Amino acid sequence: MDTTIFQQFANIPTKEIAPGYFSKLIHTTNNTINFLEVKAGSASPLHSHVHEQCAFVIEGQFELTVNGEPQILDAGLFAVIPSNVPHSGYAITDCKLIDVFSPVREDYRNL
């Protein structure tokens, strides 16, 4: 098996990137893919970054506030957050999320 292409998800270390936010990170040439498990009640404070972000909920409910507009995301609703737009989040339930960032999150690569 070519391990430069095929890899075991179980071999990716889990890192707590913020209180209650547990991540498995994959970095490609152009993107960072963040597989998150978030504990209910955990919050991500208002922030922005140069990266475009696509946010998907696989399980649970997550309140995402973008430009002051709150929206509850679940498995049927996702968000595309443009570069430098302020946003915050709150896990209503235990959640499984996937965030895709472009370009690569160098700050996450260095965790």
Give your account of this protein's structure.
The model has no long low-confidence stretch (mean pLDDT about 95). This protein has about 110 residues and is mainly beta. The strands form two sheets. The chain has a six-stranded antiparallel beta sheet with strand order 1-2-3-10-5-8, with no helix packed on it. The chain has a four-stranded antiparallel beta sheet with strand order 4-9-6-7, with no helix packed on it. It has one helix at about 105-110; strands at about 15-20, 20-25, 30-40, 45, 50-60, 60-65, 70-75, 80, 85-90, 95-100. The two termini are about 30 Å apart. The radius of gyration is 14 Å and the shape is globular. Strand 1 and strand 2 form a beta hairpin. The chain is built from one helix and ten strands. About 20% of the residues are buried.
Categorize the overall geometry. Answer: globular
The sequence of SSEs as H and E is EEEEEEEEEEH
Major sheet characteristics: 6 strands, antiparallel
Binned, the helix content reads under 10%
Distance N terminus to C terminus? 28 Å
How many E strands? 10
Please state the structural category.
mainly beta
TL;DR?
This protein has 111 residues and is mostly beta strands. The protein is built from one helix and ten strands. The model has no long low-confidence stretch (mean pLDDT 96).
